[in-house]
Write a structure and sequence with these properties.
alpha/beta; CBS-domain; inorganic pyrophosphatase (n-terminal core); six-stranded parallel beta sheet; six-stranded mixed beta sheet
Length: about 550
């Protein structure tokens, strides 16, 4: 299982590019299994950056909680639907198995067979003893179970519910007895006794098994061909032959009528309780096409493999990939405030610096280790810095950001300034996305003094695309606040050319009323000179939330 390097939910360019760059750095230094991942849709500008860098996007993984796919044993011993009880039982005995999946010709699961069910078919209850002579199988399967030979064969693959009869009577009594049964279902077991073999053939029985390795005469064989009677030569004595014929029943007769199977994406944690009282020995795991992927037992649920994560551009569980609480957090590389109750099982590397971009931190690691990033990785890191600092114009920008971007510019395949112009000119989020996507794409959730809030942001070249969609965006923001059960939600619309923003709000009226920015409408504020969610807007909102909470008493 690889070590996954994740950016936050609703990833922006810095989250995606820092994950790709840090995974590359780790692969070249101390973790060759590192793999960049993301847990959300990539926006248009980030896609443009990756295209320019000729980089594939991170692997999309929406949940890292352990699933049954991770614990399933893939080398499964199974039975085909056409096999006999004898074949399946020998396979189970050789491998010391208590249960076996049965598959059809297309590889789909038909059910499970168990030792208990097999024994029940071979050793029926005394009350059901009269039905023990009913053998539902084919002549081909019988011959295979006996390791015998066909002297003559007619429709060997046909499935028949045979009536098994052993020629243990006198010839006269036997001949009289078989005429009480339909010949097309009769399977006669006899030794070298022509006096019973001939009347059986003349009656046209479906099959004749000759024990002791004997073959019938040419005259009788010619008669068998004429009457379409299959003749099998068994190398065993009569008692052994009869037992093996009973074992030749088709395996599908032993299928358990009720069994539990799970899709490969089923989560392990709830199964521990759900399956604790189940007597089923193994549990099949199916892929989305319904085919058998593997099996697991209850013991496999005890200590499932735990995903190993490295978090970049965030340090809160609320912003992390789903299931991060159940994973091992190995490292955190970030440039935001601390919060969200992040915990780890062991001491970890935790780097959190007041820089403009996480990509700045990662790029500095390359430089400190004297590792020159490939041109594509260099451009990725440059894109993260350019995006988060508005090309070094945001108040979050530091001298280190400027220095690192200049260093990366010596290795990027295109000039940084040229790339920055093209990057910001790529696709207006307000123009190409629905209001629901806009408010949810780059949206981060926070908890402050008991309040739950969400802050989304879009960066535009002017506000021309905002005004026609203001009401739709307000409705989408209200729905986001309601569906996520938040106290407050807002969207920061930033003009990267003038460094001004508008703040659209939804939720608790007391919070909205306490916001100390010039109000343009009931739920809309003008934030002159405000461009940074992290360094400018969020501190103000935190002060508001603390003030409102104190007033609430």
């Amino acid at each position: 299982m690889p070590t996954l390097v994740f950016g936050h939910k609703n990833p922006d360019t810095d989250a995606i590019c820092s994950a790709l760059a840090y995974a590359d750095f780790l692969c070249r230094t101390e973790r060759p299994d590192a793999l960049a991942a993301c847990c959300g849709e990539i926006n248009a500008r980030t896609k443009f950056a990756l295209q320019q860098a000729k980089m594939d996007p991170p692997r999309l993984i929406m949940d890292v909680r352990p699933t049954v796919s991770q614990i399933a044993q893939r080398e499964v011993i199974f039975a085909h639907e056409g096999e006999s009880l004898h074949t399946a039982f020998n396979r189970m005995r050789q491998r010391d198995l208590r249960s076996l999946p049965v598959l059809n010709a297309e590889g789909k699961l038909l059910g499970l067979v168990s030792i208990t069910k097999l024994v029940g078919l071979l050793l029926p209850d005394y009350q059901d003893i009269d039905h023990a002579r009913n053998i539902e199988t084919s002549l081909c399967r019988i011959c295979e179970a006996l390791k015998g030979d066909f002297q003559h064969v007619y429709q060997p693959e046909e499935e028949v519910e045979f009536l098994l009869s052993v020629a243990a009577y006198s010839a006269e009594k036997f001949t009289e007895k078989i005429h009480h049964y339909p010949p097309e279902r009769l399977l006669i077991v006899a030794g070298d006794r022509p006096t019973v073999i001939k009347p059986a053939i003349e009656y046209g029985v479906r099959g004749l098994v000759i024990t002791g390795g004997y073959n019938i005469s040419d005259e009788l064989l010619a008669l068998a061909r004429e009457r379409n009677v299959t003749v099998i030569s068994s190398p065993h004595d009569t008692a052994s032959t009869t037992l093996l014929i009973k074992c030749a029943k088709r395996i599908t007769l032993a299928l358990e009528p009720d069994y539990i199977a799970h899709n490969e994406h089923a989560l392990i944690k709830p199964l521990r309780h759900a399956l604790q009282d189940s007597a089923q020995p193994i549990f099949p795991v199916l892929n989305d096409a319904g085919k058998l992927l593997g099996v697991f037992s209850k013991s496999d649920l005890v200590n499932p493999p735990v995903c190993q994560l490295i978090l970049v551009d965030h340090n809160e569980f609320g912003q992390a990939v789903s299931g991060a609480e159940e994973a091992d957090i190995l490292e955190v590389i970030d440039h935001h405030r601390l919060g969200g109750g992040l915990t780890s099982r062991e001491p970890i590397r935790f780097i959190n610096e007041p820089l403009g971009s996480t990509c700045t931190i990662v790029a500095r690691m390359f430089r400190q280790r004297q590792i020159a990033p490939d041109p594509g990785i260099a451009l990725c890191m440059a894109a993260g810095i350019i995006s988060d600092t508005l090309h070094l114009t945001s108040p979050t920008t530091t001298e280190i950001d400027r220095e690192i971007l200049s260093w990366l510019g010596t290795m990027t395949p295109v000039p940084v300034s040229q790339f920055a112009d093209q990057f910001f000119a790529t696709g207006s989020a307000l123009q190409v996305n629905t209001p629901e996507v806009v408010v949810g794409a780059d949206c981060k959730q926070y908890e402050e003094n008991g309040w739950k809030i969400a802050v989304a942001q879009v960066e535009e070249l002017g506000f021309d695309h905002f005004w026609p969609k203001q009401n739709e965006l307000a409705a989408a923001l209200t729905e986001l606040q309601r569906s996520r059960q938040l106290d407050f939600a807002c969207l920061l619309i930033t003009d990267i050319t003038t460094h001004d923003s508008y703040l659209l709000c939804a939720g608790n009226e007391r919070i909205i009323g306490a916001i100390d920015y010039p109000r343009k409408e009931t739920n809309l504020f003008h934030l002159e000179g405000i461009v940074s969610r992290k360094k400018q807007l969020l501190p103000h909102l935190c002060n508001v939330l603390n003030k409102v909470a104190r007033d609430q008493g």
